[in-house]
Amino acid sequence: MKGTGRKVIKIVICLIFVLLLLFLIWCIMSPGRIRTYDGVKSLSEKFVTDINGSPNGFFINSKNTDNPVLLFVSSGPGTDDYVFTDKYKDMKLEDEFTVVYWDYRDMGIAYDKSFDPGRITLESILEDTEAVTDYLKTRFGKDKIFIMGFSGGTHIALRAAREHPENYYALINMAQVVTDGPEQDTLMYDFMKSVFTDRGDSASLRKLEDSVDKTEDGKIVCNDWYDYVALLHKAGGGTIKDKSEFEGIVLPILFSRCYTVKEKLQYVPAMKMYRKTPLAEELAGFDYRESATSLEIPVYFISGESDYNCPWKLVKEYCDIIEAPEKEFFLIPDSAHSPLWENPSVTCNALRQIKERTANE
Q1: What was the pLDDT predicted at 2?
Q2: What is the model's pTM?
Q3: How many structural domains compose the chain?
Q4: For residue 33, is it within any domain?
């Protein structure tokens, strides 16, 4: 018995040593640095600063600060997206723009658990957007900038462009949210059912049926959004085409170099906190095909051809409806919810076209 006890102790000690070694390696792999460039007019910055009495985070990448400024409004709302820029090195939007990835109040690298979530409202976020825009215009000597929302960030970018069109050359929204009603759920359901049926995946089909309710008129309503999205990732229409949430989101966060260990550990708490804010309630029950049908500046929508998180068919329909001086819908092949990183050459070419059309107006 004594010999067995000693073996157990040795095994436990070895496990502790291995875990400590792995944690040390993880810390070394988490310096919190972002990509840098050569050139006197290049810029690489990562910082947190106060905007309207709240912490805001910024990642700025530029090979030439004479280029137009692009304010990138993070997804979620409340999800930091720079991790994808860190992972997918072929995405070189900084060749064309001074790209400012914005972690708005108390999210991402700006998360402070002592900050009152009750202060995160649509009004406060839009006031912050105006302040950030003014800051960028002044700092880089620009009369206007571009604004680009991603997924849940399109709520913010769209509304900011409507309230202050004078600030922006154009609105560029990727994976535009259009509605959160049964129409979206039905498109997602039809896509997943088709994929799982073709695969002969009866287990996923059962889970899919368990995750939805059906209305009398044949529409689908999901009863658990997070289970529904997990199935969507399995079907190949989620954040990254044909990648699970773990492979497409969790692993890139864990192994990114742009975040410190502390920033990685606070990533999920910050994201979850945003689900319990007044902003989350204010953004529920929307349909922009009815509430936001015109814009005073050019508007461009970018979707992946496999995106059913924000179904591209709804985005195309919304683009057809909205009135603007110029508008276009770009459907990016070989990508799902994140075409900027999944198919960077095609997406960045579209953004280059947009810049050439509008930056001098």
Answers
A1: 58
A2: 0.93
A3: 2
A4: no
